[in-house]
């Protein structure tokens, strides 16, 4: 992968992460660091987009980076990561025993 392919995937990841984080407020913790973690996860998803979803629309690609599968891969990776963290946080909260009030 050359540097331009890296940049194309990074731009896709930043746009998808920005829409989910700032547009839809889809996050566990608000803030810039949460957004950056989504960018990283989204980049990995965009990188895996073409091998997983295939090569769609030959005109919308840069070398081996196909735009539509990269967008879908980034979107699915971010949604999966946020849902996994929300699920594990919810499971921990459900397991925690409720505190009882003492009678005096």
What labels describe this entry?
104 residues, 2 strands, two-stranded antiparallel ribbon, single chain
Through-space gap between termini: 69 Å
Number of domains: 1
Helix content: 55-70%
Number of strands: 2
- SSE pattern, N- to C-terminal: HHEEH
Percentage of β-strand residues: under 5%
CA-based shape: elongated
Going across the major beta sheet, what is the strand order?
1-2
Largest sheet: 2 strands, antiparallel
Low-confidence stretches: none
Structural class: mainly alpha
- Average per-residue pLDDT, rounded, comes to 88
Helical run tally: 3
Gyration radius, rounded: 18 Å
Give an overview of the whole structure:
The structure is a single chain. By secondary structure, the protein is mainly α. It has one domain. It contains 3 helices and 2 strands, in the order H-H-E-E-H. The protein has helices at residues 3-23, 32-53, 67-95; strands spanning 61-62, 65-66. A two-stranded antiparallel sheet has the order 1-2. A hairpin with a 2-residue loop joins strand 1 (61-62) and strand 2 (65-66). Helix 1 crosses helix 2 (32-53), helix 1 packs across helix 3 and helix 2 packs across helix 3. The longest helix has 29 residues, at 67-95.
Brief sketch in words of this structure:
The chain has helices spanning 3-23, 32-53, 67-95; strands at residues 61-62, 65-66.
Write the layout of secondary structure elements.
Blueprint (H helix, E strand, L loop, with lengths): L2 H21 L8 H22 L7 E2 L2 E2 H29 L9
Antiparallel strand pairs: 1-2
Helix pairs in contact: 1-2, 1-3, 2-3
């Amino acid at each position: 992968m050359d540097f331009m392919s890296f940049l194309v995937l990074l731009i896709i990841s930043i746009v998808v992460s920005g829409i989910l984080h700032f547009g839809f407020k889809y996050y566990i913790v608000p803030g810039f660091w949460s957004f950056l973690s989504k960018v990283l996860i989204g980049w990995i998803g965009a990188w895996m987009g073409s091998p997983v979803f295939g090569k769609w629309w030959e005109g919308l690609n840069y070398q081996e980076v196909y735009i539509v599968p990269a967008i879908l891969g980034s979107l699915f990776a971010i949604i999966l990561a946020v849902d996994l963290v929300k699920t594990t946080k919810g499971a921990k909260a459900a397991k925690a025993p409720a505190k009882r009030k003492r009678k005096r």
